[in-house]
Amino acid sequence: MTEPSTPAPAPTDPLEPWPDTVDWRPVSRSLITVELINRAIWSVVVLAALAAGWLMTGHWSWPAAMAAVLILVIWRSLVTVRAVKAWGYAERDNDLLVRHGLLVRRLSIVPYARMQFVDVTAGPLERAFHLATVQLHTAAAATDARIPGLPPMEASRLRDRLTALGEDRAEGL
Amino acid sequence: MTSVQPNPGPAAGAPGEVVVDEPRRRLHPLSPLLSGAKSIAVIVAALSWQTLSQVGVGRFAIVVTVIAVGVVIFSVIGWLTTGYHVVGRELRIQDGLLWRRNRAIPLDRLQAVELRRPLLAQLTGLAELRLEVVGGGKTEAPLAYLTVREAAALRQRLLALAGRTPGVADPAAAQPAAGVPALERPLFRVSNTDLLISQLLTPQAFLLPVGVAFVITQFVLEGSWGFVAIASTVTAMAGVLLQPVRRVLQDWDFRLARDPGGRLAVRYGLLETRSQIVPLHRVQSIGVTWPLLWRAKDWLHLRLDIAGYAGPQANNDKRSDRLLPVGSFPVARALVWEVLPGVDLAALATLPPPARARWLHPIALRSFGAGMTPEVFVSRAGLLTRELTMVPYARLQSVRVVQGPLQRLLNLATVYADTAGGRSGVAHDRDVAEAWWFAEQLSLRARLARGPASHVPAAPPPAVPPPAVPDPAVPDPAVPDPAGPGAAGPGAAGRGVALPQPLPGPAVAHDAYWRRPSQP
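ok -> structure tokens follow
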């Protein structure tokens, strides 16, 4: 009854499964800028708060904390470039593939037929750089299919394609 | 699924009212009293004994009376403004005084219908009808209360309407389910003695004597027997015992049956009886649990996941997700065969992760495992409390592969099979190549299972590298079920009642948890 799970010889690169059948598309490089600006704003706020604490107390632990935050921010910013390059999505005949993450790598395979609705969102920073985020929702809360950093044209094309395919293959649960 | 249309202004009638072929119906006239009684009890409990001693009995009675009258008036207004009717293939419910709400529930999206009768409702011959639909964290449409006869009739009607859905199994078989006068086929009944013993075999009940002995020795050593100390001990004991006692009360007289339409009918409860009807194609996954303390009795617990009952964070006691509160392995095997035709609990084989995953799970590595059968994805985890999850391919929502930093060092990855029931089948720490193979197979089989191909026998898809190894001990059960689990809906129902599929042979191993695929 049960087939032994002896896997077929498959490519073992965790981010590049099935290289011959899947055509990965990257997200826009402008997302790097958006993420960096986002992080810069937050780090300025945090650093300002820490500096205020230093001015008021004069204790040595405040500049130490500032240095730690600065190092963390710089390291995260360096990683951001690679993290954005790690985002990718692919449209296959029957399902959407989304991969992301550097430290924890994730890949989601979501069949079009399971789509419940599609979200297209864009924050103020994303709008300034002409980017949008497309998210596909299924009936399972755990489904994780979010694609940030898409140009508006590509985002609406993807949305229309997803909804069209979803309607084509629609069914209940 | 449900549409909410707020409409300001109390005088306005139901908005968007189309030509209605049947009049709007009200709930039972006693329902405001019943629902009011619950809130009055809560308020009185909140006022507590302390207030009583402060203000005196007379004033306390007056306060309670005023509150009671207010609550009843409020409930009566609520009752006057609540109505329901069936329009076409929708159930429409209107309620609310200031914010009127008019929601339409498409019946082909119905997941399960439950008839609940709390104690007061049992005394007055009333019942609450709860409809489960996906979306929304709680039951979206409780109709409280109707007479039992009315509720049962409405449920039959809703299920008949819902069963006529052309989507799931076969479009042609739109047989009038209501017209079938056949009786229910009882499947199983849990003996109340077993239920009592099983709840005595819980950590709470097991540790209670130890705790009591500890407290008593403390008292003896201290030599103080104050009233407060004894009272608080009793309260603490009651608190500890609350969960087992509640389980016993809830799962009392547990009965399972197949109704004439082939759906699963579950009934249980002592103080609050519940009667739940689940179409088989709404079953998202089945969980099997072997608690540590039940092992002496060789007992297990079966759980049924249905979309619409909110995810795993919901309070476990409130959910109606039991398939078998306590039972032996052969019983569970027969029930699983009944709910997921073609799935033999005794023949599920799983393989543990590779040995190098020992770095991540030094002790419990062997307890993880995953495997695939022609119908379901099986995964297991847990050393002390063993849990096995079966996800039918047709119910799969999405597949995820996740690899953490430690897993990357060891070249491992974890595969998740997400369902709408809130729980996922998880293959922990597989070899990366194997994880990709799992992911590919899962998405491929899910597509075959939900597509039109589900009518052909659930043969392994052509891309499977190794052919199915015939198990010498068990006759292959994949053959006799031509419909597959996806087709076990209302359409295929009549056949399911007429010919209950036989279980393939006796169970070989009673402990399915550790079973491995037999190697050639």
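The two ends of chain B are 50 Å apart (CA to CA).
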